[in-house]
Amino acid sequence: MVPVSRSREGPENIVRIAFQLDDGSRLQDAFCSRQTLWELLSHFAQTS
């Protein structure tokens, strides 16, 4: 992992993220806009 080079401070917005899988199914959920890609992938790995 690489350290974050900029501040993550600021307003938090809720965004909906969806991943479409090879079989056509879709995983989706709402996340804080300040979450990292790693946090999103970890969330989906735990819930699927």
Q: What this model shows, in words?
A:
The protein has 48 residues and is of the alpha+beta class. 23% of the residues lie in helices and 29% in strands. It has a domain at 15-47. It is built from one helix and two strands, in the order E-E-H. The longest helix is centred in the C-terminal third of the chain and has 11 residues, at 37-47. It is globular, with a radius of gyration of 13 Å. The two termini are 24 Å apart. This is ASPSCR1 tether for SLC2A4, UBX domain containing.
How do the strands of the widest beta sheet line up side by side?
1-2
Strand content: 25-35%
Give the averaged pLDDT, no decimals. 86
What is the general shape? Answer: globular
Structural Rg: 13 Å
Low-confidence stretches: none
The biggest beta sheet reads:
2 strands, antiparallel
Task: Give the H and E element order.
Answer: EEH
Give the number of DSSP strands. Answer: 2
Classification by helices and strands? alpha+beta
Query: Helicity, in percent?
Result: 10-25%
C-alpha end-to-end distance? 24 Å
Helix count equals: 1
Which labels suit this protein?
alpha+beta, globular, 48 residues
In brief:
By secondary structure, the protein is of the alpha+beta class.
Topology:
Blueprint: E1 14-20, E2 26-32, H1 37-47
Antiparallel strand pairs: 1-2
